[in-house]
Amino acid sequence: MSAGVIINPAAGGRNEKGLALARMLEGSRDADVEVLERFEQLFPALERFAKSGIEALFISSGDGTVQEIQTRIAEDGRFAQMPALCLLPHGTTNMTAADLGFRSKSLRMQRDYIQFRGWRGQMAKRARRPTLRIANPADGKARHGMFLGGGAIAAATLYCQSAYNAKGVRGQKAALATFAKAAGKALFGGRARADDESRFDRPFPMTVRHGGDILARGDQLAILATTLEKLVLGARPFWGGRGGDVRLSLFGYPPPFLPRWLPFVLYGGEGRKMPAGMTSLCLEAFEVETQSGFVLDGEPFDPPESAPLRVSRGADFTYLLG
User: Fold this and answer.
1) What is the dihedral of CA 33, 39, 41, 43, to 10 degrees?
2) Theoretical Cys-Cys bridge with 145: which of 67, 182, 188, 300, CB 3.0 to 4.6 Å?
3) Are 67 and 297 spatial neighbours (Cβ–Cβ below 8 Å)?
4) What would the pLDDT profile of 90-101 be if each residue is shown by its tens digit?
């Protein structure tokens, strides 16, 4: 087999596109297809793919499954040569796939690309990108993902999942609804207290360091780090030039007047001028001291209790774009 295919039927509530693709690939001699009836099946499937030496791994899932696969490949060292990854946007948010995924939504084109080894062609489009490596979360399990959010971003993500995704509202509609709730509270609810968990725009104490330099200390609204070029809703909340593979943005508390500044935060150019307390830069590693939780590609985790969370540039992967 030259290609492995992993389909998570639970992605996006019920992954009808992935299941349809699995049916279309039945009997294929060029693709080893694994439909995960239980998530635990992922790990023996990856081991089987490693032993067979697949060249490309197609992933029909959401961002969380992609993160788990990247982590296993990067940390376990079972693959003699890391396979190229093709992210099929069949999940709930698909933020990673929106930037680095297969460009066509057509299942027939996806099927043909797999069966006829389209990634081997001279015209095949690829992208090379590193992950973010989270070295020391509270559970001790290193992670490789693409987008880290803390403070208001983590709180809003978890709210979106429970209030909208769990009820079948997904993708950009869920993101817009969450943004609207946050903006309404910020505009009309007054300044949030630190203990008011109904507010995303509350203060989150943290200290952020880069080497020996303190980038932020005290109450912060949010922190984000990514190796992606664009985020949900096409946002690019980073500026300040390119000097490293990890883009880090910090938003101090209290935030500036949102109606004036939010469009610039989300969609301004690299040279945008931002108010005091907002910092964006590129680097290779940083540390965060906080007791607040984080999300990595939408999956929550806690920082270590008595040490700073260490974040750095992770493993490089090649992504097949079609």
Assistant:
1) 100
2) 67
3) yes
4) 877 788 999 999
pLDDT band at 216, cuts 50/70/90? very high
The pLDDT, as a whole number, for residue 1 is 64
Under 8 Å CB-to-CB from 277, ≥6 apart: which residues?
Answer: 251, 252, 253, 255, 256
3-state helix, strand, coil in the chain (%, to 5): 30, 30, 40
Task: Give the CATH architecture of domain 147-296.
Answer: Sandwich (2.60)
Cα torsion through 102, 123, 70, 209, rounded to 10: -100
**Two structure tokens written together for 104:** 């066509």
Question: In the chain, where are the structural domains located?
Answer: 3-129, 147-296
Interior/surface letters 57-72, b for 16+ CB within 10 angstroms, e for the rest: bbbbbbbbbbbbbbbb
* Between 24 and 200, residue with greater pLDDT: 24
Query: So what CATH class is 3-129?
Result: alpha beta
Over residues 34-52, the pLDDT tens digits come to 999 999 999 999 999 999 9
Q: Using the 8-state DSSP alphabet, how is residue 146 labeled?
A: S
